[in-house]
Amino acid sequence: MADPVTFAPDKGAYVRTNAWLAAGAMAGAMLVLWLIGNPYVWTGAPAGLAAVGVRAWYLASEELVANWQMTDTTLTGPGGRSVPLNQIAAVNIMGSFVQIVTKGGDKHLIKYQADPATTKAAIERAMA
Q1: Which of 9, 7, 128, 5 is nearest to 68 (CA)?
Q2: CA 54, CA 5: separation in Å to the nearest integer?
Q3: Could you list the residue ranges that cross the membrane (predicted)?
Q4: Beta-carbon contacts of residue 20 (< 8 Å; ≥ 6 apart)
């Protein structure tokens, strides 16, 4: 049996993902304020940035230690998640996330990967 492969979250991917989320929140908040006729549309930008920034800071201690390990037969993740490789129906890339879809319809995310295409390829090679 080969050594397990670990898919660890990348801090840079975490920051980039949350920066994009913040940009979307800033634009969305400004749009809502504009649509309701608020004369201070600009206040949506700092509000969206603050909301996502606080969320990212608060969740970093949990998200950046959520490792997944893959053996010859199983993909094991945080919270007791375990997916036999022969039960994986699809492996998808969603930004910095790799989504695992099982034949039973369960979905799991391997979050904040520095190179999600490499993670996907490694899983697909192990499935073959």
Answers
A1: 7
A2: 32
A3: 19-36
A4: 95
d(CA 64, CA 49): 21
All structural domains of the chain with their residue ranges: 10-63, 68-127
CB atoms within 10 A of CB 91: 19
* Portion of the chain with pLDDT greater than 70, in percent: 98
| 83-111 tens-digit pLDDT | 999 999 999 999 999 999 999 999 999 99
Total Cβ atoms within 10 A of residue 82: 10
**C-alpha span between 65 and 11 (Å, rounded):** 10
**How many residues comprise the chain?**
128
- Counting Cα atoms < 13 Å in the Cβ hemisphere of 58 gives 6
pLDDT, tens only, 56-88: 999 999 999 999 999 999 999 999 999 999 999
Q: 46: how many CB neighbours lie within 10 A of its CB? A: 12
Any bridge partners for residue 101, and if so which? 90, 107
